[in-house]
């Protein structure tokens, strides 16, 4: 017979177990991730040997080439082809004098180790501020975009237009996602449509919510679709063209292979996005970002319950037409008129004033004061996004000040020297994957690395356009996730966790590297010289 206590409770009875609360890991925010990356970059400047290549650039005022040695000495050289040939820079002099190449170009064989140039931990705040100042053109563009969104939103045009659109697309919801993705792929391969695409999130996020999709579909159809297009750039002047020029070849060489890769990459991406979007639409709990669904919907979902919101009068139609036209004009300006962020920002301000006049005046207008407040509210809502872009540039500033970027480039070039063609391009692809984190700018990495790596192609007997393709595939596979690139600003805008995005994007990153390695290996054998 079991022993009992005075209260009659068995001595061997188990005490009720206290439930331990599981502490759920919360992935750091975009700001925290960039701060950690900045600290790591600073630490690298203490341990990675410093060094630099001599740099060459054209001075339009003097009509001379300026060569800056690793120790900072500047000398002027005649701007002719003979000078470039003597330096081993296999680039046409026209690329410098015409303004096609505006950044400093690394001169092969000039790397010199330098005294360590560590960046102090105390300089981290300065590097962040420097990055913000350096990215001010992009940031002003984003703030002006926010202002335009604010004034359009206060008119109620978004709610009315969304209500009308969702009725017309019922049963064919993915067609809109497909159309947006194809447009972004086309924009990416033609002109590197990336930072400008930030403008599309406020338009499409409410629409995709209404169609039953999640934040992943929004980012996938805009950011990742544009990145796929840029990965397999055909005539993108900021990637394929400038890299070809810096490699001493023309962008038309290898364009057929890049176009083939674009078609394959686009098909794989669209099938993957369709699979995911269908899963989410059928079962919202499948969403990789389901835990943040309510917060995301609260941020972007529009209130169309009232009769006033559903009413889609002529005033709201005109306002929406102006809003859509803003992005059509922006794309035309970038592609045909040489616009950059200041011009695009000025366009948004101009159209904001027009919307203020149309939506704020008259019998049913919201009033001048409310319109002005709406512009400020809209701009302020995108301040965190603008700051993220600046902070990301601060990381690159640390690496440049520490003089370790060229050290990594030199070590990489030594690593692949003497390899066979297929092994050479595979290793080069992985090298560009790593360098994409260090130098996230496509044009920046092109002018820094192509003069160094392109001559190595000659030693292994492969065409230089294969090096250009390896640079594109490798760098952009990294930029799908690199905190130093545009992805952090995108995730900040939609308040999405990096862990959720990585879960979706890693298959496409692996596909890009594996498909790129196979394709380039075949090309190195078929087109061997």
TrEMBL record:
Name of the featured protein: YfcC family protein
Subcellular location: Cell membrane
Entry membrane topology: Multi-pass membrane protein
Source lineage: Bacteria, Bacillati, Actinomycetota, Coriobacteriia, Eggerthellales
Source species of the chain: Adlercreutzia wanghongyangiae
Signal peptide region: none
The keyword Oxidoreductase belongs to this UniProt entry's keyword annotation: no
Any matching Pfam family: DcuC
Keywords: Cell membrane, Membrane, Transmembrane, Transmembrane helix
Segments crossing the lipid bilayer: 25-48, 138-162, 174-193, 199-225, 232-251, 257-277, 318-339, 345-362, 374-395, 415-438, 445-467, 506-528
Keyword Transmembrane helix among record annotations: yes
């Amino acid at each position: 017979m079991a022993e009992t206590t005075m209260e009659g409770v068995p001595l061997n009875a188990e005490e009720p177990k206290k439930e331990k609360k599981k502490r759920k890991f919360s992935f750091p925010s975009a700001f925290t991730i960039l701060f950690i990356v900045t600290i790591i970059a600073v630490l690298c400047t203490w341990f990675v040997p410093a060094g630099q290549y001599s740099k060459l650039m054209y001075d339009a005022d003097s009509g001379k080439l300026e060569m800056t040695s690793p120790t900072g000495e500047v000398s002027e050289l005649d701007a002719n082809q003979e000078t470039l040939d003597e330096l081993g820079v296999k680039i046409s002099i026209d690329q410098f004098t015409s303004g096609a190449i505006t950044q400093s170009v690394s001169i092969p064989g000039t790397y010199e180790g330098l005294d360590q140039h560590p960046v102090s931990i105390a300089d981290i705040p300065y590097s962040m501020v420097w990055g913000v100042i350096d990215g001010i053109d992009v940031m002003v563009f984003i703030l002006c975009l926010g202002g335009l969104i604010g004034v359009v939103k206060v008119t109620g045009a978004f709610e009315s237009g969304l209500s009308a659109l969702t009725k017309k697309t019922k049963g064919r919801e993915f067609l809109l996602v497909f159309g947006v993705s194809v447009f972004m792929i086309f924009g990416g391969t033609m002109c590197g449509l990336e930072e400008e695409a930030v403008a599309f999130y406020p338009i499409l996020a409410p629409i995709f919510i209404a169609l039953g999709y999640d934040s992943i579909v929004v980012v996938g159809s805009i950011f990742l679709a544009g990145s796929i297009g840029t990965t397999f750039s055909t005539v993108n002047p900021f990637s394929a063209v400038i890299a070809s020029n810096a490699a001493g070849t023309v962008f038309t060489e290898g364009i057929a292979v890049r176009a083939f890769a674009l078609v394959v990459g686009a098909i794989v991406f669209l099938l993957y996005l369709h699979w995911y979007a269908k899963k989410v639409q059928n079962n919202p709990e499948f969403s990789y970002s389901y835990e943040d669904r309510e917060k995301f919907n609260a941020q972007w979902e529009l209130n169309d319950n009232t009769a006033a919101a559903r009413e889609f009068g002529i005033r709201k139609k005109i306002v929406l037409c102006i809003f859509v036209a803003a992005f059509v004009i922006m794309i035309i300006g970038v592609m045909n008129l040489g616009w950059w962020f200041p011009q695009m920002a000025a366009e948004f301000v101009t159209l904001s004033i027009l919307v203020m006049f149309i939506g704020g005046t008259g019998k049913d207008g919201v009033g001048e004061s409310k319109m002005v407040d709406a512009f400020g509210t809209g701009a302020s809502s995108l301040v965190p996004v603008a700051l993220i872009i600046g902070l990301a540039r601060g990381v690159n500033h640390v690496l440049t000040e520490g003089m370790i970027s060229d050290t990594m480039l030199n070590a990489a070039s030594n690593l692949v020297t003497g390899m066979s063609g297929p092994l050479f391009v595979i290793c080069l692809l992985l090298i560009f994957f790593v360098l994409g984190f260090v130098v996230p700018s496509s044009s920046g990495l092109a002018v820094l690395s192509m003069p160094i790596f392109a001559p190595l192609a000659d030693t292994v007997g492969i065409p230089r356009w294969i090096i250009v393709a390896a640079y594109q595939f490798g760098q952009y596979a990294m930029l799908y996730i690199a905190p130093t690139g545009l992805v952090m600003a995108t995730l900040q805008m939609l308040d999405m966790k990096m862990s959720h995005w990585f879960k979706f994007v890693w298959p496409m990153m692996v596909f890009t590297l594996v498909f790129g390695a196979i394709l380039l290996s075949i090309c190195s054998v078929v087109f061997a010289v």
